[in-house]
């Protein structure tokens, strides 16, 4: 046993991506994985929403784009991720959630991580049926009132994902980094599947699968 008891059930850092269509539960699972590995969950969607809520200069620039379900320009998104990954808490790793979403973002991230000498270790893809996802998001719209959770914006985000982002997954598959996880089921059930898959890939410590909440 480690004398560092507070750290004993925390897996080592890791450099991960999580991808999946809007509504697949990425955000929820990303928070769990971040806690398990002791790494920041870097969600570009959360960063944009923070800026929009606080009416920063960036927030005002991206507000209409995000509300419509379109993608924020790559140059802006790339810059935000680069500066976030420069923060001290990302030194041991990170989980990127919602980035990269375009080929240009993939290339930018490749170059950035190469420069840092911190290659990705795995890309977790949550797989789920599209109609189920639309139903989930519509429910979330009623519960949370996110501005981009109107049915029209939800359908548009699914289309943009299928057109722009789904093809990128193939790139990561070719690199041998892709881990597919069934995203249908309860939060704990899906979380356990992710932990087991990461462990099977040799990422994380032996007890990471049993970490709950
Ligand atoms: P969801 O996956 O449920 O659509 P996110 O929180 O990941 O939600 O993203 C919300 C919105 O933020 C996107 O629809 C888009 O407008 C913007 N956004 C987030 N990440 C990116 C990105 N990597 N590139 C461009 N725009 C992004």
TrEMBL record:
It holds the Pfam family ADK. ATP binds at residues 23-28, 140, 185. SUPFAM superfamilies: P-loop containing nucleoside triphosphate hydrolases (SSF52540). Pathway: Purine metabolism; AMP biosynthesis via salvage pathway; AMP from ADP: step 1/1. The keyword 4Fe-4S does not apply. One of its GO terms (molecular function) is ATP binding. It comes from the Bacteria. InterPro entries: Adenylat/UMP-CMP_kin (IPR000850), Adenylat_kinase_CS (IPR033690), P-loop_NTPase (IPR027417). It catalyses: AMP + ATP = 2 ADP. It is found in: Cytoplasm. One of its GO terms (cellular component) is cytoplasm. Residues 43-72 are annotated as: NMP. GO terms for biological process: AMP salvage. AMP binds at residues 44, 49, 70-72, 98-101, 105, 146, 157. It is an enzyme of class 2 (transferase). Its EC number is 2.7.4.3. PROSITE patterns: ADENYLATE_KINASE (PS00113). Keywords: ATP-binding, Cytoplasm, Kinase, Nucleotide biosynthesis, Nucleotide-binding, Transferase. NCBIfam families: PRK00279.1-3 (NF001381), PRK14527.1 (NF011100), PRK14531.1 (NF011104), PRK14532.1 (NF011105). Monomer. Consists of three domains, a large central CORE domain and two small peripheral domains, NMPbind and LID, which undergo movements during catalysis. The LID domain closes over the site of phosphoryl transfer upon ATP binding. Assembling and dissambling the active center during each catalytic cycle provides an effective means to prevent ATP hydrolysis. Belongs to the adenylate kinase family. Catalyzes the reversible transfer of the terminal phosphate group between ATP and AMP. Plays an important role in cellular energy homeostasis and in adenine nucleotide metabolism. HAMAP family: Adenylate_kinase_Adk (MF_00235). This is Adenylate kinase. The gene is adk.
